[in-house]
Amino acid sequence: MDRMTTSTASHWLASATVDPAVHALRPDYRALLITAEGLRPGPSDELSEKWLSAAETEARERFGDGPVEEHPHLAAWREAFRGFGAKPQRTRPSAEALLRRAGAGLPRVDRLTDLYNAISVGHVIPLGGEDLDHYTGAARLVRATGDEAFETTASGEPAVEHPAPGEVVWRDDAGVTCRRWNWRQCTRTRLTHTTTRAMFVLDALGPMDDAALTAAGDRLSEALAESSPGVVIASRLVN
Q: Which of 83, 115, 117 has the alpha carbon at shortest distance from 100?
């Protein structure tokens, strides 16, 4: 992407699409996309610890030792995964995977990832972040042909995988950026200690209404503004 301004952020957000084949699978799906420029990246710190600790406490109070997958939004995501052939007990929706770890402690990754993980857990919503400086072209959610490249690591070494035909994936012009809707991000566009421009995807299905989705986005924007004073944020609801 070119250097982002308010107008280019709006243009880029407007170019994002959800393929009709995905909507045919889940007509209730909506994506809230948020771009942020002027981020302050780096390792986990006091501020990201504050947000993660609060999310852990909230999750423990909400779920206790109960099965997190019975939460209506997570149950809907399990159903969506089954709809394109994934087995959610093996490849869990991202929010469920995080919530299962909240009791013992969420991972501390870096300050930006920690912040969006805290919002994901607090609002029970799949949420991912991408480095826009490594993004190529428009973001689109599609059902894969199986030929697309997905850059990852295997045994600590760079590797390229391919999604299964029909799998729901986020992609750009260079390949798949996130497999199985929100299960695993590629290495090419993941957030790092040098990320200053990012795009965040908040995934919602029927049990989460637009008001709750917007509230999650507002909370993420609040966290980003606290961690990166002066950050410029834009958003778009794709439905």
A: 117
Q: Is 177 helix (H, G, I), strand (E, B) or coil?
A: strand
Q: Cα separation of 199 and 191, whole Å?
A: 10
| Nearest of 76, 68, 18 to residue 209 by alpha carbon | 76
For 117-175, how does the pLDDT look when each residue is reduced to its tens digit (9 = 90+)? 999 999 999 999 999 999 999 999 999 999 999 999 988 889 999 999 999 999 999 99
What is this structure's pTM?
0.94
**First-to-last C-alpha distance (Å) of the chain:** 24
Task: Kindly report the backbone phi and psi dihedral angles of residue 196, in degrees, each rounded to the nearest multiple of 5, phi listed first.
Answer: -120, -15
User: Does 3.40.50.720 match the CATH number of domain 9-238?
Assistant: no
Six-digit token pair at 232? 């410029």
Q: Which residues contact 61 (CB under 8 A, 6 or more apart)?
A: none
Identify the burial level of 238 via C-beta atoms within 10 angstroms of its C-beta, where 0-12 means exposed, 13-18 middle and 19 or more buried.
middle
Query: What is the DSSP secondary structure assignment for residue 208, as one 8-state letter?
Result: S
- β pairing state of 127-131 and 30-37: unpaired
